[in-house]
Amino acid sequence: KMPWIGLPHTTPHLLLSDIGMPDMDGYELLQQIRSTNPHGQEIMAIALTAYAGEVNQQEALDAGFQCHIAKPVEPNDLVTTIIHLFDGRLRVQ
Questions:
Q1: At what angle do helices 26-36 and 54-62 cross, to 10 degrees?
Q2: Banded model confidence at residue 82, pLDDT cuts 50, 70, 90
Q3: What's the average model confidence in pLDDT over 75-87?
Q4: What is the per-residue DSSP string for 37-87?
């Protein structure tokens, strides 16, 4: 497992994470951040992944991600999604 350099001392507003990563997947990453950071539950999280099926989307949402985006994604679409996530207009993607 990877140590979280800086995260215990800071609280980011957004986590943008791939799901399939070496050593630790995105689900484990989000769970570790949420459980070790005192403000971890407040961090918005987006799963950006090649796992694009409906089952994968539901799995990401069930794991605590607010949004699931399939790769490849256009940068403008990603920015729009982040804006909608923070202003409350995003429900499920």
A1: 10
A2: very high
A3: 92
A4: STTGGG-EEEEEES--SHHHHHHHHHTT-SEEEESS--HHHHHHHHHHHHT
C-alpha count within 13 angstroms, C-beta hemisphere, residue 62: 6
Q: Which residues fall within 8 angstroms of residue 36, CB to CB, at 6 or more apart?
A: 4, 7, 8
| DSSP-derived 3-state class of residue 17 | strand
Residues 6+ apart with CB under 8 A from 56: 19, 49, 68
Rg of the chain over Cα atoms, rounded to whole angstroms, equals 13
pLDDT, tens digit (0-9, with 9 covering 90-100), for 15-46: 999 999 888 899 999 998 888 877 778 889 99
> Structure pTM?
0.82
